[in-house]
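Changelog-adjacent note: as of this version, every example in the card shows the full chain rather than a window. The one below runs 246 residues end to end.
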Amino acid sequence: MIGVKGQQNVDIFTPNKQTPMYQNNVLIELFTSEGCSSCPLADAFMKDIIHLSDSTKTPVYVIDYHVDYWNRSGWIDPFSDSLYTQRQIAICKQKNEAKLFTPMAFVNGGKALSGSDKKSVGIQITQNLAKPNPNFLKIDVSAIPGEDSLIVAYKLWGPTDSLEFYAALVQVEINNSVTAGENKDKILQHHNVCKQLQHIPITVEKGQLKMYIPQTINLDNYRLIGFAQHKGNLEIRGVDQLTFKP
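Full-length structure tokens:
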């Protein structure tokens, strides 16, 4: 149960009586930065969501994108990437959002929300879990002998028109000490931090892409999240997650 101070608690993982037999998968995309003093609250909220999802086996997944436009404010976020800034800009432009901000969250490609707004995010999760799912996605991964790469394969059930397949390699947990900027002298905790994001168009029900994985990466602390997204309305049509075993 995730609640909001001064407001009625919102149980984000309890479906209502109208929930269909096959629940939709839910993807939360959070745009954040270590340079933003408002982001640690959202990071803590996402940690709670991930914990509840894992413990209840509820298909709610989180990707934590660190943007780079806060880097000129006194602290360079070591996990930031202009690719994630460009993704946020593209989503906001397509949705006619007036401005960028952090922490910004999108639940299944819906409207922009504050990533620390527990009530609004919780309502969106519950509503999306109750919707019929037009697609079902499963992913698999295999190593390439002699290469520092993985093959990420997908299979999609349902219509494929105007869809793209995304693969995100995320680091499950990171603790980092910040020595400057708005979060100076804080140790910040991050969860499901995106380290790589690749995508290909979906034209058939099965496909694959290659993802470079440096030998220095210990995959024990990583997950792979795959999702299918509509190019027009940006709806997330299917999500799947793999956890690497030691």
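Structural remarks: Residues 39-56 form the longest helix (18 residues).
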